[in-house]
What does this fold into?
Amino acid sequence: MVAPSFQVLVCGGLLVLCSIEALDNGLALTPPMGWLSWLRFGCNIDCDAKPTECISENLIKRTADLMVSEGYLAAGYEYITIDDCWLDKDRGPDGRLVPDPKRFPSGMKALADYVHSKGLKFGIYEDYGSSTCAGYPGVEGHEALDAETLASWDVDYIKLDGCNTDVRNMNKAYPAFGQLLNATGRPIVYACSWPYFLEVNHMKPNYTAVAEHCNVWRTWVDIRNSWASVVYTMNWMASNQQRLAPFAGPGHWNDPDMLVIGNSGLTVNQAKVQMAIWAILAAPLHMSVDLATIQPEFKAILLNRDIIAVNQDKLGKQGLRVWSETFSWRHKFQVWQRELSDNCYAIAIVYFGHHHTSSFFTHEELRIPRQNYLLQDLYNIETDRVLEAHKTLTFSMNGTDVKFYKFIPQAFDVFVKQI
Ligand code: GLA
It folds into this structure.
């Protein structure tokens, strides 16, 4: 992932050609989108007891089929990634990684070929340590061979976890593995868990280095199948946004973890909140749900093109929580805002109450210039409306929910024509 690139820089007062080490694989110019097995299917390896739920080539193939036939690929979800528990417990006689022969009888190259034949990209999980978080062989001590093996299977995305290793080595280990991936010559998105392991061990990550060496990095603990976990993750991202958000941009993204949407833990409204906030955060969008049984209202959220467009906005600027006041009469609201490439703003107002409420926010509270806007409701509940420069944004909600608008600046004459 790390290729030396040459840039004209002012070094020591002289204009010279300097060699810098920078992430230069040209990948993930917008946040990666796809499907990841972990949240929904975990480490289920018992294909006899649960044939449709175990981590196996059958699961990957049927999910790949559904990603195409149900329109997920067309909407932008292109990576299908097998998380932990795909490996055999032992390496092969040649020292190479071996997939579990019972669950992946055709081998990983054949599975990658199948995924590619569908127009999708193929992702896989490994771990920098001696073993993965679930106890399968890790890459430590076999780094070069494993990078070469994964590339030989035509892997397009690697989620490299960091269990079972000395955290103090990570600042060297993650860049080094990225260099090995780069050396294979295959373009591979590099998703690191490096800063997460430093954060939980109270060691301050150097996010400049992380953003130079990784396309995507997990920020904090695993998201779980519950609303409490989604809210906890949102609040962690907001509490740390000043430190983290500046490092997001084309080619390098903060990853608050998978979309829980479509599983038992979230209601439809809660799922709408997660989709809106992950769009504001410019977060990777990894579904983790059984696409064969997902209910249509959740599927519609995942496939909402206007919201995906916010997530994929080419400016690549991570949005922020701009309003959250614990002691205010509006303490049950949060406001999140993201600047977009077309001078527009995406604004999500999240309501955590359980009863009908009406409220308002001013332009200043929304942190947007005081001008006229056309408001497009990205969940298509309201018809488009105009917010005048001297008015406040008013709205009402019936219980936990999100209002998610695109604020489109309006020149005065356009505004006059519309009213
Ligand atoms: C860690 C990661 C998860 C998942 C599991 C697999 O907990 O954070 O996303 O990959 O390992 O064991």
In short: The first helix runs from residue 38 to 41. The radius of gyration is 22 Å.
